Design the sequence.
């Protein structure tokens, strides 16, 4: 079978889930006739019709609110944010209404909110965001941020079948750059499980999404220098797979967290705190972070490059940590 | 506005308004006895709206109240004990003490969606419930309420617009009680009639005297029937007055005395009672019987509620996620084959009237500018026929006229 | 019964109120909800209805006085009012269940293990220069008894690295590769604890590292389990336990029960068990020997006038001790009903906080799980607990011949500070006598 892009994997997941279960519907801006701003839903309207693929007004709060209401009747809506930056327009609806429903009054809201995120494509300050941590801080949500076509498809299917509201971030830098052969049969990837992408013994690099690939490239280079880095793909940020992280730290005793989100309040800080609480006496060095700067995402290519983490920045930090 | 309402319906409306007020009176006592946790928000003088609107719904229909719509909850079948226990943060309450006031729902049986404090959020949610109901073939109507103040939130407009383009079977009751906390409606909205909000979304609207329960019911019933028939969402502005403060702590001294006196003389329960007496639908015995029934019911419900324990502290850590405790499943009332391929498959192309179609002129229907009705090419926008039923205007006017007649009565 | 009248909180930001007028005088009768007094606060003035029916017994805060919210401003005597009102008034004060031991646990002598393992202060070299290492290095040094001042550091800035300490341990074993992950693996933190703040109930008798070996699964204690642990630890620490055992011939009771059990259930719609017999017998024993129906406060023995018997109920998720109040005043049916009701609500988590409070003595029944007998830990603040063994047929010598009798071992654990052996055995004898010569009707 031919290798499949990250974007195609997402389309396949939606197509197969809608084929499998008539309770699955898609709504969002330009998802129907146009097939989505990135063509992730191309062909779905033709196959499933106007009632199941709904072009909406530019109203993120209404999209999320309506998806939530639909889920109360047993539907499993997928709500697309045209760019994930716009999810903040629906912040209240998600964090105050959708996320709290099950805890407060026992109302599960099986909805998936997905959309293209991340920088590195010169999208500028309003089309490059990584807003995952606003939602990782919100009990009641699950937050997924995959890095491979296999995981994207398997996790999106798992998200559709999950009874909780799941936020699914799709790094648009990966959409057409990463390809992989996928199994022909139906499969899911469990939510809340990290995976070891590369084994190593000198230090652990924790990462996700586009930065996972940057971290793997850096690890290859480090290996040539005699530093064996273990690379872990977090895949799900909420709930975080502490077990896999702690197991690796017991082995390597040193940790570097790499993410494209800005530094303050990023998941690296949370991971550092978890390590202090649960693995302090396993640490043979401080927890290092390589992240974006604490600024908005700038537009001009040299500015954005300076802003984002990259292989060189990861290498620099990893070497320093190994030497510590 | 009372034709076509049976005696029993008149008496039901009376009973539920009385029950609504008695439940709130009891809660004022509980509050002052320090038995209620947090604030207490009353609907004194607005009972006709909660009761008359919800009474127009069928059992299968869905509603989502605002905090003051206790009457709507009672009409939908919520026992008073649940309302008491919610306010007292008891373990036996529908939310087990995790939330208070009218903040609870019931997806399974009563079809109630819990409100939250951020006003307007329920509008798209109830539009979504309505769209899902239509998709599943359930022929339901959904209803929620908003205040004059809440109609200024962004999500009110997003939600109503979304419902309108989707022609969702959804009724929005706009309770104009003239005060948003301490700010008068004139400082909230520069409109004489808030029903005019509907014009912006091309949907039908009504204006009704919110203190005339029969009028409220009849208008709501008509709206619900039109929604069920597929006419799309409808907005009803019910004009009334908030006789209490925002909550128990608020003496509402910012309200002019004369204004309060005017509305106190138009108490919805007293008005309806007067009507029932003059039409010989209710006598002194009947009234005493209803009052006794309510007293007996509430005494028992209150005792039950007061004796419910507080929740165990550990409960605080439980229930954030559904971990198999629920199995959401749609109830299909139409053939699934209609929404699955091959039947669901279509030619996904917009057609623009007078200009042909996208993608090489294949295809299906599509609009120009707005709505699903093909526009007449060549005429300025202002001369085109409005998209929604223009009949909207008539009932609104009729209702307003009826309201002023009532007011003079 | 007296019910407090409190200054209500009339809004989220209100913290005090002024009494402007009392509408009743002490001695006046009041109905529930009848206006009692008027108050004025920053935001609102209100008339406050009476929380209960009864007689206004006392006014504690007079007109014109301003007091914080929740202050008791008066008292109503509700003698003769309904039980429901009493219960509801009580239920208003949420309490933790079960009650944690009141005695503050003494500070642990040993430093919390997490701190011992990793928190040792940075040592200094003999020349006074601070040694740079890491939490991992300090833990390994401690485990292997290595003085870090003797280990040369090769890491950044002369820091002692993992490789350095491994070399010192292994007598020159080379970096990293020989570190046995299983040995080096640190234990997970104490359950439910962040940042190594070990709870007193979680002290361990050995270094924590010695607990984790081989394959294992770590199950964090539930909140309830933690409270049981605290409670048991405190009880054992505070009360010198002595144990006495006696044996009771239950043949008569067993026969009576099997004869009447169906009729009992039919008539009263509740099951007839052995437990009410023991509760009755214990109540008799406590009435005869009140020293066992007591608590100790320093050098004062507090003799309780009520006999409130706690019954240990095993739950799938722990243990709870609901209390039968005034057990000595209840008839047999009343005791059985209370037992079944409390046990059922314990299992469905519907117990009210005050139903697990104020026990004066307890009974536990390990026999139900087949135990010959058990030596229970005293449930504080009691001074005694009765343990029931399994009732089973045994050969017994009666009048020099061997008979088959239904026998049961009962044990009494008691606090020797308050109770001596003589009293304990006499109490057990009273229990035995009551059961062996049972005369009360059960139907």
Sequence:
């Amino acid at each position: 079978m031919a290798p499949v892009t990250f974007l195609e994997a997402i389309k396949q997941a939606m197509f197969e889930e809608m084929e499998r279960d008539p309770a699955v519907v898609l709504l969002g801006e330009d998802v129907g006739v146009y097939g989505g701003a990135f063509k992730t839903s191309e062909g779905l309207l033709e196959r499933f019709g106007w009632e199941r693929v709904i072009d909406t007004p530019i109203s993120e709060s209404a999209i999320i609110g309506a998806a939530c209401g639909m889920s109360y009747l047993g539907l499993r809506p997928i709500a697309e944010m045209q760019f994930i930056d716009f999810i903040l327009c629906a912040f209240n609806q998600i964090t105050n209404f959708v996320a709290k429903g099950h805890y407060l009054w026992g109302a599960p809201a099986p909805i998936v909110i997905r959309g293209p995120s991340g920088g590195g494509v010169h999208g500028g300050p309003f089309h490059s965001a990584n807003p995952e941590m606003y939602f990782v801080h919100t009990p009641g949500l699950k937050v997924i941020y995959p890095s491979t076509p296999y995981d994207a498809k398997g996790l999106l299917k798992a998200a559709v079948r999950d009874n909780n509201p799941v936020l699914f971030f799709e790094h648009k830098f990966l959409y057409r750059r990463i390809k992989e052969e996928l199994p022909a049969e139906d499969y899911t990837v469990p939510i809340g499980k990290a995976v070891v992408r590369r084994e190593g013994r000198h230090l652990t690099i924790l990462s996700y999404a586009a930065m996972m690939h940057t971290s793997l490239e850096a690890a290859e280079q480090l290996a040539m220098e005699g530093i064996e880095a273990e690379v872990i793909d977090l895949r799900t940020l909420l709930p975080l797979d502490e077990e896999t992280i702690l197991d690796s730290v017991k082995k390597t005793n040193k940790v570097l967290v790499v993410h494209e989100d800005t530094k303050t309040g990023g998941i690296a800080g949370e991971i550092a705190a978890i390590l202090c609480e649960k693995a302090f006496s396993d640490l043979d060095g401080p927890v290092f972070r390589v992240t974006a700067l604490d600024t908005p995402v700038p537009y001009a290519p040299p500015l954005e490059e300076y802003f984002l983490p990259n292989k060189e920045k990861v290498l620099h930090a990893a070497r320093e940590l190994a030497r510590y | 506005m009372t034709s076509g309402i049976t005696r029993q319906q008149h008496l039901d409306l009376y009973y539920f308004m009385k029950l609504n007020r008695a439940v709130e009176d009891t809660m004022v006592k509980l509050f002052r006895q320090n038995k209620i946790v947090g604030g207490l928000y009353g609907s004194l003088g607005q009972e006709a709206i909660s009761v008359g609107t919800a009474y127009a719904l069928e059992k299968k229909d869905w509603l989502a109240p605002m905090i003051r719509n206790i009457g709507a909850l009672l009409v939908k079948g919520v026992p008073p004990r649940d309302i008491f226990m919610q306010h007292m943060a008891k373990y036996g309450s529908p939310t087990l003490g995790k939330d208070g006031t009218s903040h609870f729902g019931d997806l399974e049986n009563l079809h109630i969606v819990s409100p939250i404090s951020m006003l307007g959020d329920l509008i798209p949610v109830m539009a979504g419930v309505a769209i899902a109901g239509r998709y599943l073939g359930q022929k339901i109507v959904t209803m929620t309420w908003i205040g004059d103040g809440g109609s200024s939130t962004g999500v009110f407009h997003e939600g109503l617009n979304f419902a309108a383009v989707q022609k969702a079977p959804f009724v929005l009751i706009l309770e104009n009680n003239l005060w948003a906390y301490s700010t008068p409606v004139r400082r909230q909205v520069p409109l004489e009639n808030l029903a005019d909000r509907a014009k912006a979304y091309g949907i039908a609207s009504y204006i009704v005297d919110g203190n005339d329960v029969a009028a409220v019911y009849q208008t709501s019933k008509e709206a619900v029937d039109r929604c069920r028939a597929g006419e799309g969402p409808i907005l009803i502005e019910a004009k009334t007055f908030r006789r209490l403060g925002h909550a128990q702590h608020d003496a509402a001294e910012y309200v002019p005395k004369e204004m309060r006196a005017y509305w106190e003389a138009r108490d919805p329960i007293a008005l309806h009672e007067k009507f029932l007496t003059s039409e010989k639908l209710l006598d002194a015995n009947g009234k005493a019987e209803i009052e006794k029934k309510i007293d007996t019911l509430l005494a028992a419900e209150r005792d039950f509620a007061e004796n419910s324990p507080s929740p165990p502290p550990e409960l605080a850590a439980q229930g954030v996620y559904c971990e198999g405790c629920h199995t959401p499943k749609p109830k299909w009332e139409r053939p699934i084959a209609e929404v699955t391929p091959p039947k669901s498959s279509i030619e996904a192309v917009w057609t623009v009237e007078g200009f042909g179609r996208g993608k090489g002129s294949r295809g299906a229907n599509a609009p120009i500018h707005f709505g699903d009705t093909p526009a007449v090419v060549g005429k300025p926008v202002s001369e085109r026929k409005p998209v929604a039923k223009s009949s909207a205007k008539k009932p609104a006017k009729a209702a307003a006229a009826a309201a002023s007649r009532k007011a003079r009565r | 019964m007296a019910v407090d009248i409190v200054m209500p909180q009339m809004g989220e930001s209100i913290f005090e109120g002024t009494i402007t007028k009392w509408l009743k005088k002490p001695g006046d009768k009041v109905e529930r909800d009848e206006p009692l007094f008027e108050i004025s606060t920053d935001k609102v003035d209100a008339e406050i209805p009476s929380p209960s029916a009864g007689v206004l017994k006392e006014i504690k805060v007079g007109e014109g006085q301003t007091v914080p919210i929740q202050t008791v401003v008066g008292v109503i005597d509700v003698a003769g009012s309904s039980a429901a009102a009493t219960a509801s008034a009580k239920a208003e004060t949420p309490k933790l269940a079960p009650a944690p031991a009141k005695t503050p646990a003494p500070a642990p002598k040993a430093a919390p293990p997490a701190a011992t393992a990793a928190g040792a202060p940075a040592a200094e070299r003999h020349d006074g220069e601070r040694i740079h290492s890491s939490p991992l290095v300090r833990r390994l040094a401690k485990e292997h008894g290595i003085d870090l001042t003797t280990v040369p550091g090769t890491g950044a800035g002369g820091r002692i690295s993992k490789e350095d300490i491994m070399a010192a341990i292994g007598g020159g074993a080379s970096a990293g590769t020989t570190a046995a992950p299983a040995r080096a693996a640190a234990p997970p933190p104490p359950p439910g604890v962040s940042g190594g703040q070990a709870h007193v109930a979680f002290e361990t008798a050995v270094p924590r590292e010695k607990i984790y070996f081989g394959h294992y699964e770590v199950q964090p204690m539930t909140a309830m389990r933690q409270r049981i642990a605290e409670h048991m630890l405190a009880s054992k620490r505070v009360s010198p336990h002595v144990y006495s055992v006696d044996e009771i011939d239950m043949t008569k009771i067993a026969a009576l029960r099997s004869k009447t059990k169906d009729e009992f259930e039919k008539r009263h719609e509740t099951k007839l068990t052995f437990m009410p017999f023991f509760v009755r017998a214990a109540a008799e024993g406590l009435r005869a020997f009140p020293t066992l129906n007591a608590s100790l406060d320093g050098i004062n023995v507090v003799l309780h006038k009520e006999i409130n018997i706690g019954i240990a109920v095993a739950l799938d998720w722990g243990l709870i001790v609901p209390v039968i109040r005034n057990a000595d005043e209840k008839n047999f049916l009343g005791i059985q009903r209370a037992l079944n009701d409390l046990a059922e609500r314990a299992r469905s988590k519907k117990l009210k906080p005050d139903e697990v409070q104020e026990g004066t003595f307890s009974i536990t029944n390990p026999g139900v799980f087949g135990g010959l007998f058990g030596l229970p830990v005293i449930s504080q603040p009691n001074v005694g607990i009765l343990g029931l063994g399994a009732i089973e047929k045994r050969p017994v010598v009666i009048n020099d011949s061997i008979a088959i009798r239904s026998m049961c071992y009962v044990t009494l654990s008691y606090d020797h500070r308050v109770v001596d052996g003589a009293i304990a055995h006499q109490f057990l004898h009273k229990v035995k006598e009551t059961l062996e010569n049972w005369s009360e009707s059960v139907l």
